[in-house]
Design brief:
alpha/beta; six-stranded antiparallel beta sheet; 13 helices; 16 strands; about 40% helix; about 25% strand; amino-acid biosynthesis; transferase; ATP-binding; nucleotide-binding
C-alpha cells in the first residue's frame, strides 16, 4: 500500500483536482491513502478569519465570505448540479465554523486557532472525494481526527502513538482508495489539534508507519528535493538520492520541502519517501532511503527569515555556565520559543529563535531581570550543509554577519 500526500498548491483550483486524478491514473494506484492539505492559500485565509475574530470583529464576516467564495468557485467548476451532496457537505462545514465563532467562550488564541484552521482540510478532502466519486473512482473519506490522537498542545500537538496505532489498524481498509486530511488530529476531549504548519507530510508518515506502507510520495510543484529554495537562490539543483540521516538534518534546519517530524517514523520502519512533481508524475524525483550517499554531493542551502537573535551577557561578569544556561532554557521552554542556533562564551550567550506564539516581549522582560540583553529582530538564518568557501562567500556577500557557527559538515550564519 502506498501513501500519497498532495499539498495545497496541487489542488488550488478545479484543474488541480483534475490533475490529481491524472497522477492517480499514471501511477496506477488503487490501494492508496491520499492525504490532502487545504486548497491553495486557504490556511492563510483562515488565519485572517482568526485574526479578525480576535482583533477586527467588523471584518470577520467579510474574511469568512472570501473563503466561502473561493471554495464555491471550485465546486461550480467541478460539479454540474448544485443539488449534489457535496454542496450540502461543504455548506455544513461552513455552518459548523460559523456556529463555533458565535458560541466559543475560550480566549485562548491557540485553542481557537486549531478549531478554525482545520476546516480548510476538511473541506478540501470532501471536494476531492466527491469529485472522484462522480468520475467513477470510488473512495472512502476519513475524518483524520478519529484516527490521530494527540495531547492538547494546540498548534504543535504531540502524537499519542499507542492510541493512534490502535485506532488506525482497527478502523482502516487498505484494499480501497482512502482520502483523509493532513495536519489535523484531536485530543482526549475530541477538540481539533494541529501538528504544526506543513504537518500534512507528518500525517502521511504517521499513517505509513501504522499501516506498514511500502512507500510515501509527497507531490509538489517542484521536481523533487532541491539543494536550495528556488524562491531565494538561483540555479537550484535536484537531489536524486538522500539518506534518512541527511533528510533529518535538512528538515531540522528548516528545509521547507520536508516537515521536520516526517522522516523519523519512516526511518524506523525503513519506508522510502519520494518527493515528486505533480506536473510530471512520470519523473523519478527524489528518493529518501537508508544508507545512500547524497547525490549529487553539493552544498545545500536553507534560509529562515524573520528570526530573532537574542544576545545575553551576565550583569556582574560571572560565567555563563550550567546554572545560567539552565535558567535560559527554562524560559525559552516556558514561552514556547523554537531554538534554531545557540552559541556561548565565558560571559555571553546568543540564541536565534522563532517566536511562533508571539511571546517575545514577555520573554525579554524575564531575561532582563537576570542578564544584559541585546535583541535583533527580523534577521535571517542561513544554514549550509556540505559547505565550501564559495558557498559561504555567496551567503555573506553584502550582508552584516551577526553570528557564525561551524561544524564539520554544517555552517550557520545569522545576518541582518
Amino acid at each position: 500500500m502506498q501513501v500519497f500526500k498532495f499539498g495545497g498548491a496541487s489542488i488550488k483550483d478545479a484543474e488541480g483536482v483534475k490533475n490529481l486524478v491524472t497522477v492517480l491514473q499514471k501511477t496506477e494506484q488503487k490501494s492508496t491513502l491520499i492525504v490532502i492539505s487545504a486548497m491553495g492559500k486557504t490556511t492563510n485565509a483562515l488565519e485572517k478569519v482568526i485574526n479578525n475574530y480576535f482583533n477586527k470583529k467588523a471584518e470577520l464576516q467579510s474574511a469568512l465570505q472570501d473563503v466561502k467564495k473561493y471554495h464555491n468557485a471550485i465546486l461550480l467548476d467541478l460539479f454540474d448540479n448544485e443539488n449534489q451532496a457535496i454542496f450540502k457537505k461543504v455548506t455544513a462545514f461552513f455552518d459548523e465554523l460559523s456556529n463555533f465563532l458565535k458560541i466559543n467562550k475560550s480566549p485562548d488564541y491557540n485553542f481557537v486557532y486549531d478549531q478554525i484552521i482545520g476546516y480548510g482540510e476538511l473541506i478540501s478532502t470532501s471536494i476531492v472525494s466527491g469529485y472522484l466519486d462522480t468520475i467513477g473512482l470510488k473512495n472512502n473519506w476519513i475524518d483524520v481526527r478519529e484516527h490521530i490522537k494527540t495531547d492538547n498542545y494546540y498548534r504543535r500537538a504531540n502524537v499519542d502513538w499507542d492510541t493512534t496505532q490502535r485506532l488506525i489498524t482497527s478502523n482502516f481498509n487498505p484494499n480501497i482508495l482512502n482520502i483523509t486530511q493532513g495536519f489535523l488530529g484531536s485530543d482526549a476531549n475530541n477538540f481539533t489539534t494541529t501538528l504544526g504548519r506543513e504537518g500534512s507530510d507528518f500525517t502521511a508518515a504517521i499513517y505509513a508507519y501504522c499501516l506498514n506502507a511500502s512507500g510515501v510520495t509527497i507531490w509538489k510543484d517542484v521536481p523533487g528535493v532541491l539543494n536550495a529554495d528556488p524562491r531565494y537562490f538561483e540555479n537550484a539543483q535536484l537531489l536524486h538520492d538522500i539518506s534518512y540521516r541527511e533528510a533529518i538534518e535538512l528538515a531540522f534546519y528548516g528545509a521547507s520541502v520536508i516537515h521536520p517530524k516526517t522522516i523519523q517514523p519512516l526511518q524506523r520502519k525503513e519506508i522510502p519517501l519520494f518527493v515528486k512533481s505533480f506536473l510530471a508524475p512520470e519523473n523519478p524525483g527524489t528518493k529518501i532511503s537508508r544508507d545512500v550517499v547524497l547525490n549529487p554531493m553539493t552544498p545545500c542551502f536553507i534560509v529562515k527569515r524573520k528570526q530573532i537573535l537574542i544576545s545575553l551577557s551576565s550583569l556582574d561578569f560571572s560565567y555563563i555556565v550550567e546554572e545560567n544556561i539552565s535558567k535560559i532554557f527554562s524560559l525559552l521552554h516556558l514561552y514556547k520559543m523554537k531554538v534554531d542556533v545557540i552559541q556561548n562564551s565565558a560571559i555571553s550567550f546568543s540564541v536565534c529563535i522563532d517566536d511562533i506564539y508571539n511571546n517575545l516581549e514577555d520573554l525579554l522582560q524575564q531575561l532582563k531581570a537576570k542578564f544584559k540583553v541585546t535583541c535583533n529582530s527580523d534577521v535571517s538564518l542561513y544554514t549550509i550543509r556540505h559547505y565550501n568557501e564559495k558557498a559561504i562567500n555567496q551567503i555573506e556577500s553584502g550582508k552584516t554577519v551577526l553570528l557564525k557557527q561551524l561544524t564539520q559538515e554544517t555552517i550557520q550564519i545569522v545576518t541582518k
